[in-house]
Amino acid sequence: MCSVQETSLELNVKTKPATKDCIKCKTAKATVLIRHSTYCNKCFQHVFVGKFRKNVEKSRILSNSAKLNGYGEKVMIGFSGGPSSRTMLQLINEYNEARPHEISKKCAYTEIIVCHIDESVLFNNGSTLSTNSKCSQESTILQVEKIVQKYNYPFIGLYLQDIFNPEVTKSGCYSKVLELAVDDAKMLQLEEDPAISSTEKLLNLLNNISKLTAKEDFVWYLKLCYLIFTARKNGCKRLLLGDCSSRLSIKIISQTSKGRGFSLPLETSGEIDWFEDVIITRPMKDMLSKEIGIYNQLTGLDSIYVPSITSMMHPKASIERLTEDFILRLDKEFPSTVSTIARTGAKLTPSDSIVKENRCIVCLMPYQENNKIWQKRITVMMVPSLQKSEECNRQQSSSNKATSYYDNCKSSNDESTTNVEFMDLLCYACRVNLNVINQRIILPPYVAEGVEDKKSNNRKQMKKQIENYLLCDDDDL
Amino acid sequence: MSLIKVKLSFSGGMELLFNNIKQKHIEISSSINPPNATTMKDLVCKFNFTILIKISDNLLKERPELFMSGDTVRPGILVLINETDWELEGELEYEIKDGDDIVFISTLHGG
Predict the structure, then answer these.
(1) How far, CA to CA in Å, does A410 sit from each of A184, A374, A376, A459?
(2) In this structure, how many other beta carbons lie within 10 angstroms of the beta carbon of residue A97?
(3) Regarding the domain with residue range B3-106, which homologous superfamily does it belong to in the CATH classification?
(4) Cα separation, A228 vs A239, whole angstroms
(5) Chain A residue whose CA is closest to B92
(6) What are the structural domain ranges in chain B?
(7) Is the full-model pTM beyond 0.90?
(8) CA distance A97 to chain B (A)
(9) Which residue of A has its CA nearest to B62?
(10) Could you report the per-residue pLDDT of A109-122, keeping only the tens digit for each?
(11) Rounded to an integer, what distance in angstroms lies between the CA atom of residue A285 and that of residue A417?
(12) What is the per-residue pLDDT across B23-55, written as a single tens digit (0 to 9) for each?
């Protein structure tokens, strides 16, 4: 296990070094092995912090030259409490404190807000997501707050279920929710029913998504959207996320498998302005999870344990989980796996056909124009021979449901352009996710608002098209 | 044959496999497989491990795959012996000495 065999697969594999001195200072005894390099504790920490600073500097220089003229900006740290974001919080703090005495007198960031989203709802309240009754989990907000208090930064603790709050929208007070029924893919704009708590709504949504992969995907995008909205609300120009290179390489492979290749460059890049007023930066993108684990151990940083819905489950529980297992195993034998995937992924650039208007209303990522048409072309929803037998048909009811989506979509093509079909507003992956729902579900207000925006946009466009033929301009269109 | 004292620590979610115990001092034989000295392999080996850690509430016995993968520790779990990466200490071949401080850290939270 401990010696890497030379194989034809990877010609450049070096055997692990026999010398046990640090390759940097060449004097101290090595204590850490990162890929093929040995470091002593001191040099390891130096290199580790250096990588972080390089990434932060890079993003600062970019944004400075653009608009800020050297003034610091207000940023929000997305802090899960896990090891990677724990390290990020510490390093951002060191960086921001140390800089004034170094290069310039200005702080890199004028204001830092730490935001945490508590997901414990997923494991409580009779949610079918928890596999083990013992797993019922306390809120993580208190634990996280304790950590953040050490830094003197304002702390925002949010609950994932509050994504159903009318404030979590662009306008800040959009109270309608979106109801989606299974059989006819019809959507209804509903006034929010105050009798149903946000927790119930969220659990209803997730419990009715039958596939763990889809569920996991959903939770991630709800979280991301919540973070973006919160950053925007608090006037933060930048959102710092703690994805490390191990996590990013897992994401690159799993997102590709889930059909998110189109938006992949936006979702894994170290710096992206897809959300226009909120730039997402991932300063941890070059650190391996192993490096982070060692750094936290050496410096005594205490992180909290944040389970995901597939924690403690079989590796085949979901695509994400399986990818993680696969990559970690491969990386054990071939220690360059993670960095190769991450660096290759970093070379991806967003496609030219990405249009800001074509934004999936659920994940807020771009969707490909006409993806529904090619999806229909390449997907077999039903085995043809089964169509004849009614009994079999009944057994295949789930796939039938799915086909009815497409029939519905098809028929709607001829309808008026102001009528927006819900399925048209989704990216491929979100549509696949919503294909596996069991019952009617309620989607959060920000999704309902997205539909509304799209409708009014369409109306505007149509008005523009027929502008020349209109007799009176202030028609109430 | 004598007993050696070893300190085991679990973090990053690993402690959940051991009944939420983060640290445990244990005493083991200096030679579990005589005449050879006790190695990490002996400690980590599926059967010995559950015997050694009587504290775990059977979770590990039921689901050894959360900790083990084949004969070794699951990838994604970081092992430090006296603050040194165990990959530099020969991993499973490392001979455990009296007073060793062994840390198991789960680095990614899938498992």
Answers:
(1) 12, 13, 10, 21
(2) 12
(3) Beta-grasp domain (3.10.20.30)
(4) 7
(5) A2
(6) 3-106
(7) no
(8) 28
(9) A312
(10) 888 999 999 998 88
(11) 43
(12) 888 888 888 777 888 888 887 775 556 555 555
R_g (Cα) of chain A, nearest Å: 25
Strands (DSSP E) found in A88-153: 109-118
Nearest CA in chain B to A81: B12
Instruction: Give the count of domains, chain A.
Output: 1
Report d(CA B64, CA B77) in Å as an integer: 14
Strand, helix or coil at A268? helix
Question: From the list A20, A30, A321, which residue is nearest B110 (CB)?
Answer: A321
For residue A461, what are the CA distances in angstroms to A353, A418, A452? 20, 9, 14
3-state DSSP assignment of residue B77: strand
Rounded Cα distance between A362 and A218, Å, is 9
Cβ separation of A2 and B92 shorter than 8 Å?
yes
> Taking CB atoms and an 8 Å limit, are A82 and B15 in contact across chains?
no
Counting one residue from chain A and one from chain B, the pairs whose CB atoms sit within 8 A come to 86
Complex-level ipTM? 0.89
Interface of A with B in 304-363 (CB under 8 A): 305-308, 310-312, 315, 320-321, 324-325, 328-329, 331-332
Q: Is the pLDDT of residue A64 over 60?
A: yes
Domain with A201, as residue range(s), is 52-346
